[in-house]
Amino acid sequence: MLDTTQVLAKTDLGRDAISKRSHGLNPRQRAVLISINGELSVGALRARFGAGKEAELETMLEHLLEQGLVERTRVEPAPSAPPVSPPVATAPAEPAPATPPRETAAAPVVVAVAETAGESLPEGPDWRVLRDRAGALLHQVMGEDADLLAMRLERSRTEREFMDHLERSFAVVESARGQAAAASYRAGILSAAA
Predict the structure, then answer these.
(1) How many CB atoms lie within 10 A of CB 27?
(2) Environment class of residue 194 by beta-carbon count within 10 Å: exposed (0-12), middle (13-18) or buried (19+)?
(3) What pLDDT does residue 33 have?
(4) First to last CA, the chain
(5) By the number of CB atoms within 10 A of the CB, which of 56, 68, 70, 155 ranks highest?
(6) How far apart are CA 60 and CA 28, in angstroms?
(7) pLDDT digit string, tens, across residues 125-177
(8) Which pLDDT value is given to residue 83?
C-alpha cells in the first residue's frame, strides 16, 4: 500500500505514453496519469479519483509505477500546527460594510495568467466567459487528450473551482506538450480575457 504522503511524478516514458496514447491505458488510467504532476500526493489523488474505489486506484498507481510511467519523488511533509498565542483583549472593531461576494470578474484568474506570462491586464470579463473559452483552447492545444480536463473546466460552478482547474490545465499542457504549447494556451486565455 502506498503512503498517502508520497508524491508521484510522470517519467519521460509516462509523458510519452500520454502524447502517443501508448501502453494500452484505459481512459481512467490516462486521466490518473495526466493528473500526476509531481505536486499531488497519493492522498490527494485518492481524494480526486478514489471515491469508493480506493483499492482500484491503489492497484492502478502500483501498475503505473511498475510500468515505469511514474516515479516516487518525495514525501509530503506533515502539516505543522500554527503556534497558539494567548488571546489579547482588544476593543471591538467597527464592522465592515456588508458587500456581496463578487463573482462577476475573473481578475484573480487574469492576473495569475498574466503574471506567469510576464504581462499585466486590467480587470477581466466575467469568469464564465473565460471558462467557456478555456475548454475550446485546451482542445486546440492538446486534442483529445484534453477531454477530461476540458470537461472539468466547463463544469466549474464557481470562480474558485474554475481557477483550480485552470491552474491544473496549465500544468498538464506544459507536462504533456511542452513550454511552447503552454505559452500558446496561456496567450489564448489572455486574449479571451482582454
Answers:
(1) 9
(2) exposed
(3) 85
(4) 48
(5) 70
(6) 9
(7) 577 778 778 888 887 888 777 788 888 888 888 888 888 888 888 888 888 88
(8) 53
- Which residue ranges in the chain fall short of pLDDT 50? 81, 99-112, 114-123
Cβ atoms of residues 113 and 190 within 8 Å: yes
Q: How far is CA 144 from CA 64, 73, 82, 96, 150, in A?
A: 21, 28, 44, 48, 10
In the structure grid, which three cell numbers stand for residue 126, read together?
A: 466575467
Per DSSP, the chain holds a count of helices (H) and strands (E) of 9, 2
Length of the chain: 194
| Side-chain half-sphere exposure of 32, counting CA atoms within 13 A | 28
Q: Residue 38 — left, alpha, or beta (φ > 0 → left; ψ -120 to 50 → alpha)?
A: left
d(CA 186, CA 173): 10
The structure's pTM equals 0.42
Radius of gyration of the chain (CA): 20
51's grid cell: 471515491
Q: Which three cell numbers stand for residue 144?
A: 483529445
Is the sign of the CA dihedral 114, 190, 182, 66 positive or negative?
positive
User: Can you list the alpha helix ranges (DSSP code H) found in 39-126?
Assistant: 42-49, 54-66, 107-117
Nearest alpha-carbon partner for 2 in 58, 60, 63: 58
